[in-house]
């Protein structure tokens, strides 16, 4: 059906007139096979939903969410992180007509079969769930940071948003120092986590994530065709990078909307791209300065941090032995570049 024997449209026409009692079980079985393969191949619920949702078909997104939840049935030994992602997937939605459903199902099967296996970062259902994460950030700290970032995202006042973000980043920085000190005496190893990088302007957003990661003893590998970057580092550092990146992206979007030109689609696009390039570069500079300042206050951490850097690099090289340095984004708007650097200077850091 999808292997090239007949064209897609011809296959859809044939299925439309065939008895539903014969077609539906076959399609359901094919979907189950593909989702089972991908789940066993390292894909997590949120990642599967995101990569399908990127196709722009809401019916396919609903099919993906339903398939993930169905896969959970019958498993008792499910890692709580895996189950938590599955429970957050959207539910419900308008029931499509049969032709639309068949079209979406066939299209989804075609896309799923193109997806490769990826690194298993969270044990899939049916395997022994992971124990407590060594070196993970204190949930109380993360809860306070999330609450502050939620307030920063909801306010319409830039100064207030920056104040909330600054407090959140202060907590992150303090926790990173504590974790580095404690990990010297504990059996702590690097971890990896995949962070979604959404369009538009994926390349520029991935560059911002990389700038934040490098300033916090982490490394990233961007997979543009799959819509995520893999973030390598120690667990508390990864938590810090993810939250800090989210906060800075919120601040960037607010400043970009405030400063962008009012007219001209091409001009606005060039402005936004140049803005984000400059913003990522300047944020990286500021974070590196902050990191050096903190290290100077804790010179006893230097051997620990150097050792952590080596371990993180080794973990990344093991997972991605062959990586290609991406080409830098073009800067086509001086106005956007200058505005991006100014916004980065305004962004509140710890």
Please outline the helices and strands.
Elements lengths: L7 H10 L2 H21 L4 H9 L4 H15 L7 H9 L9 H15 L26 H16 L3 H26 L7 E6 L5 H14 L3 E5 L4 E6 L1 H25 L5 H33 L4 H18 L14 H13 L4
Antiparallel strand pairs: 1-3, 2-3
Structure report:
Helix content is 64%, strand content 5%. Helix 9 (202-215) runs parallel beside helix 11 and helix 11 packs parallel to helix 13 (334-346). The longest helix has 33 residues, at 265-297. The chain starts with 7 loop residues before the first helix and ends with a helix. It has 2 domains: 8-112, no CATH class; 139-346, no CATH class. It has helices at residues 8-17, 20-40, 45-53, 58-72, 80-88, 98-112, 139-154, 158-183, 202-215, 235-259, 265-297, 302-319, 334-346; strands at 191-196, 219-223, 228-233. It contains 13 helices and 3 strands. Strands 1-3-2 form a 3-stranded antiparallel sheet. It is mainly alpha-helical. The relative contact order is 0.10.
């Amino acid at each position: 059906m999808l292997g090239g024997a007949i064209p897609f449209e011809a296959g859809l026409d044939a299925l439309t007139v065939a008895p539903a009692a014969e077609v539906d079980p076959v399609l359901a079985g094919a979907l189950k096979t593909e989702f089972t393969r991908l789940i066993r191949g390292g894909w997590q619920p949120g990642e599967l939903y995101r990569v399908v949702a990127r196709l722009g078909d809401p019916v396919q997104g609903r099919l993906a969410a339903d398939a993930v939840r169905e896969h959970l049935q019958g498993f008792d030994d499910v890692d709580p992180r895996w189950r938590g992602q599955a429970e957050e997937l959207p539910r419900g939605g308008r029931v499509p007509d049969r032709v639309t459903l068949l079209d979406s199902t066939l299209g989804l099967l075609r896309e799923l079969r193109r997806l490769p296996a990826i690194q298993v970062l969270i044990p899939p259902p049916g395997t022994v769930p992971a124990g407590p994460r060594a070196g993970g950030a204190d949930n109380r700290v993360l809860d306070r940071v999330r609450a502050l970032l939620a307030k920063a995202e909801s306010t319409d006042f830039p100064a207030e948003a920056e104040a909330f973000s600054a407090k959140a980043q202060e907590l992150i920085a303090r926790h990173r120092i504590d974790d580095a000190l404690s990990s010297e005496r504990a059996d702590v190893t690097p971890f990896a986590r995949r962070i979604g990088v959404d369009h538009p302007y994926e390349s520029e957003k991935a560059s911002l994530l990389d700038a934040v990661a490098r300033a916090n003893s982490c490394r990233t590998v961007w997979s543009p065709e799959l819509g995520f970057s893999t973030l390598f580092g120690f667990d508390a550092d990864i938590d810090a990078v993810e939250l800090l990146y989210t906060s800075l992206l919120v601040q960037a979007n607010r400043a970009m909307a405030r400063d962008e030109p009012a007219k001209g689609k091409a001009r606005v696009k060039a402005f936004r791209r140049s803005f984000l390039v400059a913003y990522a570069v300047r944020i990286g500079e500021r974070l590196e300065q902050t990191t050096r300042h903190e290290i100077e206050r804790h010179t006893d951490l230097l051997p620990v941090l150097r050792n952590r850097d080596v371990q993180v690099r080794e973990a990344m090289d093991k997972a991605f032995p062959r990586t290609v340095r991406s080409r830098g984004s073009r800067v086509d708007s001086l106005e956007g570049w200058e505005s991006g650097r100014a916004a980065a200077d305004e962004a509140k850091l710890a």
